[in-house]
């Protein structure tokens, strides 16, 4: 793609050429006074003329799709070549006359004879300059189609779209250049020409800087950034104001002078998120923080964890990326300082985010203080120990403090017991609840009539709601909504009292009540929908639920479906019907969003509140399975993902977004297939046909590439000496090994044992080092402490002939066993692995050694020579490493003993 600022290069080259032209004419004029030009000077000028003409030609050819006025400038630039020829001839003539007698007199006579041509050249230079500046003025003032202005407009719109702060540098430079376009009366001075070139250079340089900053900030942005924030209701008028009352809480004092962590705790549904949103955005918070920051800049980004949401709403990546985005969009000038070479489509890694954020927090050029507002720590989709590390990372900086909210969490409580202020939200909300109910009911004209006739009874209803809520705002919201429905239907006080009396005392009872009200003929489909939402990796688009009808008609619908882009019009019609059906089958327990789904389609279906998902998963799962006894949600999800994969728009291999969408669906399907294999009691995979079809579909989607489609996925980044090289030989079976689909892989190897022998990385290496780059963080480790290495997969491959001592030429000729040890060693060097992961490594090591891997030989790793025993000791500790080293000897002894024992029956027979 041509640089939109190529035209700037053309103009700069023309101005430089004009400089040389004026210098040449000045030289000729001096010669006319009898002064001989130095040969070196004239030679340098000739060379400069040639160079500038080449620049103009090159830049002019690069300015493709130029607008009308830009094209005129390029045409004017071509006249410079004609002038260059004339100037060169005059200089050549002057140089030749040096070798004749009476040089000075002859040159003077030559100048007199050519004076009018020389002055004409001077006038031509002025015409080119005036024409160029006139058209530059037209470009800057009215040519919206010009390359320059289109680029600047696009850059401005992009910055506005991501809410990136802009300074006036570009506008000031444009104004200054525009000023030169109206100064065309007199010949431009050398100082003016130099300053104009500086302005043009600054325009290009500043625009390129802003483009690079935009790419960096865009790489941090993700569509779900404010999705949870938008779902959190704003605090009702006159509620939550107690937070800033210094007689009731110490929140203001902490904002003004405190440090560490301010912890807002409360039970489920107690209004923590609403309070956090209220606190983060309130003007009093900003004033108090300015008091703390003094003359420093203050930044107070916020993040709202949402466990039922998409990956970036519940992960470390989402938290760190969101905070970094919010800071850099306000101060884009430091973006290129903290990450100068970041591309907009590159996926951020945790370590990279931490390192960049550390640079931001320690910036010397900007005096700043930071107060982060992080809601819903208990909704983080991972180990609480990870959260402890993140919070330690933040509060370890003296310029940072954090306000967080969560349900009570033991690990978090113990880790920060001495460095926090705690506020229990339900101790403060009873008065607010009464205010909320009053504000919802009293404006209703029909309720006003009831107040007139029964003031005490109406007041008592409001008081009872506040007292019965037990600090749970969601309960207040739900009962108030039901009361308003009855009021609008002209029901009297007795009915309202009955609604309040009969309303379940806790949320779980309320959810059961909602489910019981679903019509019996919808219960099975309701159960299927809820079972899908329990198992889903992230909220599904509404259209996906319509595929339940397809599955009822034909269980192989996804396999038989054609590979064809889904019609947007057809999807919209389905969505319209299914929005009502979801409501009929699930009541108010799920909501249908209006926004796009981050992977594909739109209208993500989500729970009313996290407590709904908790209830369905923990308290009602058995009832759901009884209502839909033959329904397998994981298998159903696999088929749904396959159908979506077939319905994707055309895959463009060069477009990261297109590839990411495809790989996202693939990885989600593979996750559901893995979960299905784990829970299914059958020896064989029930998803062979679905997985084979997945491979076929993607081969079709990316048929333009020469390698197998699995190569469009980026290789994992190297971690020290732990590198991942494919050698162009990755295939679907290798991906199935990485996805830990043991039953599927077993079936493929039984059908054709030759599948084990592939080029590039051996399958056993994929099993021992299964890392892969994926757009989605699957809950392999967050919902269960599930190990990375699948021991069953390792055992399976070894049983089918895999060799742990096979050398991998792609990785320095190290064996598969050595590569596994290097991977474990590097992981241990970076951080402390969990006990389950280390146990899985140990078990895999036992299996590998039992199949011939040597626990005693040596190999080099970098500057340090590490033997296998030393690596085993550093990874597992001395005792376990020693046990592994004894295994070969123990097995030999056991084998020898078994050999002797086998003779005992024979010896006994002789004795008889």
From TrEMBL:
Gene3D superfamilies: P-loop containing nucleotide triphosphate hydrolases. Transmembrane segments: none annotated. It comes from the Eukaryota. Residues 518-649 form the DUF7791 domain. It holds the Pfam family DUF7791. InterPro entries: DUF7791, NPHP3-like_N, P-loop_NTPase. Keywords: Repeat. Residues 239-407 form the Nephrocystin 3-like N-terminal domain. This is NACHT domain-containing protein. It comes from Trichoderma lentiforme.
